[in-house]
Amino acid sequence: MHGTKLQISIRKAKRDDLPDIISLFASDVLGGHGDTSEPDAYSDYLAAFERIAAAPNEALYVAELDGEVVGTFQTTVLTSLVGRGSSNMMIEAVQTRQEMRGKGIGEMMMHFAIGEARRQGLSKVQLTSNKDRRDAHRFYERVGFEPSHLGFKMRLK
Questions:
Q1: 91 and 79 in contact (C-beta within 8 Å)?
Q2: In this structure, is residue 2 part of a structural domain?
Q3: Residue 17, Cβ neighbours under 10 Å: how many?
Q4: φ, ψ for residue 105 (rounded to 5)?
């Protein structure tokens, strides 16, 4: 990150942020998640937003620059018997607006999430990344993540 540091603020997402968050996901062609800004899909996103907001171990965040949403990510705290009953943070749905990439926004979001995990006394922070996102892999390693597992998924719908 060169030049002037951006004045980014990170906060929990509000319902009013939903159109901007949806737009971030819909513009991601590599993700293959089928996200769309079509109006008939809004109710699906709103229902998911409400479920996330109501879940005690989940949080959806946005990164803001000059009042505009430029990034988003979600965290979930998982507790397992593995690791002597450890609790870990899973980071999901990391997205930065296309034209804002490379400006340090993703790094700020990751440092924020890691800080939250430390504040909560969690044992580990983990995430998955699409195997085709080579730039993202380099980014995650640069901010301190280590590739450690091979992930598998099964689509049900």
A1: no
A2: no
A3: 18
A4: -65, -45
Number of separate domains in the chain: 1
More confident residue, 86 or 32: 86
User: Collapsing DSSP states into helix, strand and coil, what is residue 23?
Assistant: helix
Residue 155: inside a domain, yes or no?
no
In the structure, how many helices (H) and strands (E) does the chain have? 5, 5
Mean pLDDT of 62-75: 96
59/69 Cα distance (integer angstroms): 16
**What is the residue type of 151?**
G
> Residue 109 in 3-state DSSP?
helix
* 3-state DSSP assignment of residue 90: strand
Question: So what's the pLDDT on residue 1?
Answer: 45
pTM beyond 0.70: yes
